[in-house]
């Protein structure tokens, strides 16, 4: 049985068998189908057994009915068993689904010991499932999250392709800490030969790190392909263990060249508008069945059902409402925070970082939705950002940059106008203690020397987007195999 409509320009003789999602959506009653799947649950009666089969292709499983002479085989079937079944699609008599599979042939591919199988039917806490990371994709919520991630990637690629961006692949092994945050994982030397110099013991004959951001390399490609993006893994040795940070996470990053504009504020505003358009369009195309599973999933959840419904509605309104997401300068944000009569754990002052309690208040209480905070003080931001023109009478310099804050997630995106003037860039690197002509960054400075062009860019935390969209409380449930300080199970 081949899914109708699956006709390609260049057909091959090779055909994949249908997934359960395809069977449920397109196979007509009377059709013979075969599927390979895992048993989610099985209910055995004297002469008949009902199983729910899942191959992870959809939120819904396929109900399978095993009649009379299959009973011997079915005895061995338990939750988690993998099967290859063949049968006919029939109309379902049971409530809840339109069709089911009347099984004619069962092959047991792999048995599953019911005593020791960690994924029991009863509700399992997120913490427990993290201890069984290798099997947790068998649960509804993790499977829905995985499909959501895949679909988000597809939609993101589609959005960028529509805007004529090139998807590029920047390295994971890098020569420096792009963000200057001192959180880069360093590769250990590969040789212990005492006769070698420190440098020669290094695999690359120089220190090497796992990338914290693909931005700098993306900027190099932007200086040839004009509009580029990448979606790749980033690594940060952040010791603080929070529900928003991972040691390995994925970031969507884009860089593009822009026309020179006197006022960098306009560039920043346009950059925010691009990001808003991206998120709205991508999110608007998600599968609602998977979102239902995620939003209704309440294991280990501290939020009431009513509040969850409200949050989901607010999230969708954010995406569909024609009202643009508000923009607010950092100075204005500080001004608002200082007005609140509240004991902050971290005192509010101009020049200080916005802590997550401040960000939370700004988007959840003051605005009640996403908010772009722009024009942060120079001291809070990395060397590559372009400064705003200094306002007369003000000594403080702000940057042409923004952070996008989302309710319940905090900072989802950060971006800026990039400094394209070589002299200014070098000065700002020196202020941050970096050597603009040293081996780690000379190539970056040189981009400005050989046809440097005004450009802008941003980075979006992919797991935070997944979490915001699916109402997922902890970022560890937004990635297949989470890593954080002290923890890497597989
Ligand atoms: O604000 P960040 O550090 O910005 C950069 O790295 C820029 N170079 C990006 C760019 O302009 N190309 O990180 C960007 C986003 C954050 O807003 C957050 O969503 C996510 O990456 N992020 C993390 N997500 C999970 N775990 C962590 N440890 C994260 N650190 C940052």
TrEMBL record:
PROSITE patterns: AA_TRNA_LIGASE_II (PS50862). It holds the Pfam family tRNA_anti-codon. GO terms for molecular function: asparagine-tRNA ligase activity; ATP binding; nucleic acid binding. InterPro entries: Aa-tRNA-synt_II, aa-tRNA-synth_II, aa-tRNA-synth_II/BPL/LPL, Asn-tRNA-ligase, Asp/Asn-tRNA-synth_IIb, NA-bd_OB-fold, NA-bd_OB_tRNA. Keywords: Aminoacyl-tRNA synthetase, ATP-binding, Ligase, Nucleotide-binding, Protein biosynthesis. Gene3D superfamilies: Bira Bifunctional Protein, Domain 2, Nucleic acid-binding proteins. GO terms for biological process: asparaginyl-tRNA aminoacylation. One of its GO terms (cellular component) is mitochondrion. Its EC number is 6.1.1.22. Residues 146-480 form the Aminoacyl-transfer RNA synthetases class-II family profile domain. The keyword Protein biosynthesis applies. NCBIfam families: asnS, PRK03932.1. Belongs to the class-II aminoacyl-tRNA synthetase family. This is asparagine--tRNA ligase. It comes from Mycena indigotica.
């Amino acid at each position: 049985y081949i899914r109708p409509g699956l006709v390609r320009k260049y057909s091959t003789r090779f055909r994949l068998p249908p997934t359960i999602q395809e069977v449920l959506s397109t196979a007509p009653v009377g059709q013979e189908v075969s599927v390979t799947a895992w048993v989610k649950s099985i209910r055995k009666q004297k002469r008949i057994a009902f199983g729910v089969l899942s191959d992870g292709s959809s939120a819904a499983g396929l109900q399978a009915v095993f009649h009379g002479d299959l009973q011997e085989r079915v005895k061995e079937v338990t939750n988690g068993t993998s099967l290859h079944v063949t049968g006919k699609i029939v109309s379902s008599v049971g409530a809840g689904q339109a069709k089911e599979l009347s099984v004619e042939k069962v092959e047991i591919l792999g048995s599953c010991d019911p005593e020791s199988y960690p994924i029991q039917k009863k509700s399992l806490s997120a913490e427990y499932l993290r201890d069984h990371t290798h099997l947790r994709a068998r649960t509804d919520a993790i499977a829905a999250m995985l499909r959501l991630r895949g679909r988000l990637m597809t939609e993101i690629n589609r959005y960028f392709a529509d805007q004529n961006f090139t998807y590029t692949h920047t390295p994971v092994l890098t020569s420096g800490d792009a963000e200057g945050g001192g959180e880069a994982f360093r590769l250990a030397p590969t040789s212990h030969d005492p006769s070698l110099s420190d440098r020669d013991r290094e695999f690359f004959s120089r220190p090497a790190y796992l990338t914290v951001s693909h931005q700098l390399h993306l900027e190099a490609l932007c200086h040839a392909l004009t509009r580029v993006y990448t979606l790749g893994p980033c690594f940060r040795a952040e010791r603080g263990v929070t529900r928003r940070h991972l040691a390995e996470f994925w970031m969507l990053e884009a860089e593009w060249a822009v026309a020179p504009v006197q006022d960098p504020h306009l560039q920043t505003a346009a950059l925010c508008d691009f990001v808003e358009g991206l998120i709205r369009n991508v999110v608007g195309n998600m599968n609602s069945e998977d979102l239902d599973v995620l939003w209704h999933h309440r294991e280990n959840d501290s939020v009431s059902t009513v509040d969850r419904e409200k949050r989901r509605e607010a999230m969708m309104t954010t995406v569909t409402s024609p009202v643009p997401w508000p923009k607010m300068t950092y100075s204005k944000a500080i001004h608002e925070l200082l007005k609140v009569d509240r004991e902050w754990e971290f005192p509010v002052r101009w020049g200080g970082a916005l802590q997550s309690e401040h960000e939370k208040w700004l988007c959840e209480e003051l605005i009640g939705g996403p908010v772009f905070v722009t024009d942060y003080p120079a001291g809070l931001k990395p060397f590559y950002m372009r400064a705003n023109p200094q306002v007369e009478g003000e000594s403080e310099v702000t940057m042409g940059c923004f952070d996008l804050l989302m309710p319940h997630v905090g900072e989802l995106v950060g971006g800026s106008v990039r400094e394209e003037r070589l002299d200014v860039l070098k000065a700002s690197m020196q202020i941050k203690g970096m050597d603009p002509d040293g081996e780690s960054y000379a190539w970056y400075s040189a981009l400005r020397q050989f046809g440097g062009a005004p450009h802008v860019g941003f980075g979006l935390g992919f797991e935070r987007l997944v979490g915001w969209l699916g109402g997922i409380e902890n970022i560890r449930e937004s990635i297949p195999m989470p890593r954080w300080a002290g923890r890497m199970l597989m």
